[in-house]
Write a structure and sequence with these properties.
Number of strands: 0
Shape: elongated
Distance between the termini: 48 Å
Order of helices and strands: HHHHH
Number of helices: 5
Structural class: mainly alpha
């Protein structure tokens, strides 16, 4: 699969949609980036958010 994804050329006149169709690749696979480590969502909130909402 990775070999076929590597064949996609974004500067080619043929659209990415058409290239992925020809190569039988879902376009979502072209844009997928694995998630990093999960973080504690509470640490991402602004300070005082817990006080405002319970």
């Amino acid at each position: 699969m990775k070999e076929r994804i590597a064949l996609i050329d974004t500067s080619h006149p043929l659209s990415i949609r058409r290239q992925s169709e020809i190569l039988s690749i879902n376009r979502s696979q072209l844009y997928y980036r694995p998630a990093g480590e999960k973080s504690d969502r509470r640490s991402e909130r602004k300070p005082g958010a817990d006080e405002d909402y319970g």
